[in-house]
Amino acid sequence: MGHDHEGQRVSRRRLITGISSLGLGGLLAACAKAESTTSVATITPRAATAGDVTALFAEARTCRMTTAVTQGPFYFDADLVRGDIREGKPGVRLRVAIKVQDGRTCRPLPNAVVEIWHCDANGLYSGAESLSTAGPLSAGFQPLENGEFADMKPADRKRYLRGAQVANADGVVEFTTIWPGWYHGRTIHIHAMVHIADQRVLTTQLMFDETLNRKVMATQPYAQRTGRKVFNAADEDFDESMLLTTVPDGDGYLAAITLSTET
């Protein structure tokens, strides 16, 4: 799987189940090798202040099990294996590096599939623009009996700010995206889901220090929206373990986090 496949619609289900002439191991290994953005050795910060991604992981290192939370109402399998998920969406550039490890041994989990998805600067989710404008409850989304939400059926064909990557030998993936916006009832966040083989082993959220949130929200295009009332301390899902370690990175930011899960 070469670089020309970046951005192609590639079924995560095929990635996981190995429905390919390469087989599961070969396909995952090929994808991990092809996606250069997942290699710690090839990540070069765009500014001296960004430091080194490995150093950021050392700072963010934890062997605590990552807090699991609901996937929310706007998840669906977008079938997009790619590192850059922006699709031209305006906003402050954000590089997100995620290391996945076994929560019992703290060893990296190569070939784990990591998905992320989040709203744009206006608080809208791709595949659900009309629904996220009204808000999940107003749009009729109701959690299941266990408090979880079912996967949604996309209401439009847009897929911005959604994507998946295959972890390299160090258990690392990296995405290029924008700083998320906000919507009523929630603090600023990124959703993340980790798959091992055909199992969803972790669903969580990634969040930011409020000092940085306020700084970014004061810039365009975010500043066009006013009325943000829910901050980290009052958010229903916030946990300090979800905070990304974030540093300036040229015209944007570089953020890193380690996710620990059961296998």
CATH superfamily: Aromatic compound dioxygenase
What top-tier CATH class fits best?
Mainly Beta
Average pLDDT confidence is 81
Number of domains: 1
CATH topology: Protocatechuate 3,4-Dioxygenase, subunit A
Based on DSSP secondary structure assignment, what is the total number of beta strands? 8
Low-confidence stretches: 1-10, 16-51
Pfam families: Dioxygenase_C
Protein name: Protocatechuate dioxygenase
Keywords: Dioxygenase, Oxidoreductase
GO molecular function: ferric iron binding; oxidoreductase activity, acting on single donors with incorporation of molecular oxygen, incorporation of two atoms of oxygen
What does this structure look like?
The protein is an alpha+beta fold. It has one domain (3-72, 81-122, 158-261): Aromatic compound dioxygenase (Protocatechuate 3,4-Dioxygenase, subunit A). 15% of the residues lie in helices and 22% in strands. It has helices spanning 12-17, 23-34, 53-59, 129-134, 210-217; strands at 93-102, 113-117, 162-166, 172-178, 189-196, 199-207, 245-249, 252-261. Strands 4-1-8-7 form a four-stranded mixed sheet, with helices on one face. A four-stranded antiparallel sheet has the order 3-2-5-6. Residues 1-10 and 16-51 have low confidence and may be disordered.
